[in-house]
Amino acid sequence: MRKILVVFLMASFFFSCGGSGKKKSKNDRGMIIPSQKSKSFAPTRPIGMVPVPAGSFVMGNTDYDFAQQQNATPKTVTVSGFYIDDTEITNAEYKVFVEFVRDSIVRQKLAERAYEMGFDGTTSSGATGLEAYAFKDMSDGSGTQSAYQEYINEMADGRSGYESERQLNWDIDLIWDKYEYPDRDYVEVMEEMYYPPEERFNGERLIDVRKYNYIFTEIDKNKAARAHLNENAKRSDFVITDTVNVYPDTTVWVRDFNYAYNDPLHNDYFWNEAYTDYPVVGVTWDQARAFAAYRTQKHKAYNQSLKAKNREDIIDYRLPTEVEWEYAARGGKQDAPYPWGGPYLADSRGCYLANFKPKRGDYIEDCCAKNQDAGFMYTAPVKTFFPNDYGLYDMSGNVSEWTQSPYSTASGEYTSTLNPYLGAGREIPSKTVKGGSWKDVGYMLMVGARDWEHKDSARSYIGFRTVQNIPEGANVRYKRTRQ
């Protein structure tokens, strides 16, 4: 009884001195004073992105609806600021994603086999064979596991959901040369990643790209917003888990064009070094979303590795909405039919301002304004043509681009005028694509023109770029535009 009374008196003393037993704030006089001081927030500009300021504009076709599609009715809307990639995502950038997925799958398999054999990441007998790829020890470097790591390993034995908490060991390079595999277990794990013998051509041993599956999660915000109507709703009810095969479909070069010899592009476009700076194609809407999710994951992982004082809030990357894309493509110019102003597709010298199909049966531009000797049958390297006034390249031509928005012919009539958005539209198969491509005529290059494609379709003329929101009030230096 005496002990209980002492504890009660000590608790009363702590509360009387400031509430929690912690050192009380200076001069708060018992009042609530925020510990975080108000200051100018300047987000770090992601590499390869440019900022687009918030503003209003008239979206859709104005007096240039030659095809009378009547699916792009003019409407004044307001858009928040955002960062956007200055070019389409290139083969080189998408390869980083593909190779990460490949390596993480291999490392996961190796680590699981090592764990089954008793290697838990704390062994120190010499980093040979499978032991080197065991799950990473989360201790402070002393060689003994932290209490948290012990807990994770215990919980990960079952189906508790903690399996993903175990960290892969990325400190040791993978061994790809089959003649240098360290042991039989390593061989067995690696062989699972390759096509089986009966599916090999001329005995060529290649990795089975069907295994390149990336798993990521999203929150269904629309469903969560209505959760108050269901008192039994749980947070897990709003989590959507997607598994997406990330390898681009290289057969699009053959499938999209019957009776055309595009086999060399099927073989080389994604992997040959000659196409490093060309826009990635053959990706579906879901693959583009998966890339954005990976980009977020990668950036957040790096941010978490920094000292606490150097960390910043990382805002998710995503596909642009249709309205954001069109707003950025206009480059701050009102009523301009093309990103460079308009209304012509060539400059005063007769050199083209974008990569498109200039004439019937003629896919090659005689010259482009930035490089008079250039002419392209298919896609062109990014930054070949001049950017718009925001510094964005190929917003018209080269490849059409996925947007986050589902497609509807009448969407402009019933969407809001404030950041118009129809939601991610996961259940809606048709998605809006913008910008026109290398195989399109000039009309499709107009910023107000609209087109669509099934979200599970990959095409040789559709790529994408990503955006990142800019918080209201952030201190960002925007590029001035010419009106």
TrEMBL record:
Keywords on record: Lipoprotein, Signal
Highest taxon of source: Bacteria
Record-annotated membrane-spanning stretches: none
UniProt-listed Gene3D superfamilies: paralog of FGE (formylglycine-generating enzyme)
Annotated Sulfatase-modifying factor enzyme-like domain residues: 48-467
Pfam families attached to this UniProt entry: FGE-sulfatase (PF03781)
Signal peptide bounds: 1-18
GO MF, one annotated term: formylglycine-generating oxidase activity
Keyword Lipoprotein: yes
NCBIfam families: GldK (TIGR03525)
Protein name (record): Gliding motility lipoprotein GldK
Organism: Profundicola chukchiensis
Gene from which the chain derives: gldK
